[in-house]
Amino acid sequence: MKYCSTRGGVQGWDFQDVLFAGYAPDGGMFMPESIPTLSQATLRGWSRLSYPKLVMEVASIFIPTELIPRKDLEFLVGSAFSGFSIRDVVRTVQLKDGLTILELFHGNTLAFKDLSMKCTVCFLDYFLKKENRRATVLVGTSGDTGGSAIQSAKGMHGLDVVVVYPQGRITQIQEKQMITCLEDNIHVFAADGSSDDIEQPLRRLFADQELVKSHGLMSLNSLNWSRLMIQLTHSIYAYLQLMDLEQLEAGKPLPELEVVVPTGGAGNITAGLIVKQMGLPLKLVAMVNANDVMHKTVTSGDFSMAATVTQTLAPAMDIQDPYNMERVFWLLLGGNGASVKKIMEEFRHSHAHTLLENHHKLLCHHLSTGTVNDDGILETMRRCWEENQYVVCPHTAVAVWHHYNCPHDPAVNRCYIATASPAKFQAALQRAGLTYDLPEAIRALDKLTPRYQNLERSLNWSKDWEQKLRETIDSVRSARENGLTYYN
Question: Which of 23, 99, 147, 409 could form a disulfide bond with 109, CB atoms 3.0-4.6 angstroms apart?
Answer without folding.
Answer: 147
